[in-house]
Amino acid sequence: MSIKVDALISRQFLAANLDEIREMREESRKQDAKSHIVWRNVALFFALHVGAAIGLYQIFFDAKWATVAWVFILHMLGSVGITAGAHRLWAHRSYKATLPMRIFLMCLNNIALQNDIIEWARDHRCHHKWTDTDADPHSTHRGCSSRTWDGCW
């Protein structure tokens, strides 16, 4: 069974060398994980949550229905920018898009505020290539902090 899986993995887009992954895991066991705080990201997350608290208050007490509808529309458009743009088009290259469509998806991606497309696609490709190793930017082995405060640590 392992031979079939190894052969399948080797044919995948951006497939990692399985020996390389084993070596990385062994090497990571020898080293102590040292985390550092990226203060820029902490400040941005803090500002985001303060803004969300203000927005939540305003939705219930100040906002008009058109504002609430606009927030919902922006949320949906940002989700399309991440899903159809950064994820499917640029990270996985699942399809080809015309220049106007790529520009449109770039604009939608900006609404989501999840870094630029190049950084998003790079991190996502690394995540798939080196899943749950030290090279994985979203590794589950780093604990809750890497999933909750992704990018801060």
Automatic annotation (TrEMBL):
Keywords linked to the UniProt accession: Fatty acid biosynthesis, Fatty acid metabolism, Lipid biosynthesis, Lipid metabolism, Membrane, Oxidoreductase, Transmembrane, Transmembrane helix
Main location: membrane
GO biological process: unsaturated fatty acid biosynthetic process
Keyword Membrane: yes
Cellular component, GO, one term: endoplasmic reticulum membrane
Cofactor annotation: Fe(2+)
Stretches that traverse the bilayer: 38-61, 67-86
Membrane-related topology note: Multi-pass membrane protein
Subcellular location: Membrane
GO molecular function: iron ion binding; stearoyl-CoA 9-desaturase activity
Keyword Membrane part of the UniProt annotation: yes
Family statement drawn from the similarity comment of this UniProt entry: Belongs to the fatty acid desaturase type 1 family.
UniProt comment concerning the protein's domains: The histidine box domains are involved in binding the catalytic metal ions.
PANTHER family: ACYL-COA DESATURASE (PTHR11351), DELTA(9)-FATTY-ACID DESATURASE FAT-5 (PTHR11351:SF27)
UniProt name for this protein: Acyl-CoA desaturase
Taxonomic path: Eukaryota, Metazoa, Ecdysozoa, Nematoda, Chromadorea
